[in-house]
Amino acid sequence: MIIESDHMFGNNLVQRLTNETWQILFADRLSDAKKIVKRKNIDVVVLGLNAMKREGLAILKMIKKIRPFTEVIIINSSEQIALSIEGMKLGAFDDFMVPFDIDSLRIRIQDAWQQKKQKETAKKSLLDRYRDIMIAATFAEAGESDMAIEFLAKRKKARTKTNTKGD
Fold this sequence. Notes:
Blueprint: E1 2-3, H1 7-17, E2 26-27, H2 30-39, E3 44-48, H3 54-66, E4 71-76, H4 81-89, E5 94-97, H5 102-141, H6 145-165
Parallel strand pairs: 1-2, 1-3, 3-4, 4-5
């Protein structure tokens, strides 16, 4: 997703970044950006701060609150470096100063996407383990300690097989 209040610059980014694998949404108004982020699970946001200034940082905070795994890449001018620093402190993945190399931005978008997927996988793995422990605890409470141990061993073996298949 691209959030950029300069409509021409934002459309130019959309055209230059669109490819066969990326679906790019564009918002040039903060109200539209908020609606999209609330409704859709966005992987990566490219956020222009030049014209938005502090409002852009408010959008960054909102994104991180609603979609903590969504990665945000800031685009800014060198005259407003303090905004970029503040954005990084708020959890932005990276920042680019205008002018920038579009291929470098593509690479960082891909890196941000991969990081988001890794975070989601780690969370899913943690939730799966928690669920398994709760099931085993239920067996143990019912006096079936051997069943609990056997269940956990089978689940661990199944997770190990799944993890090695992905390699």
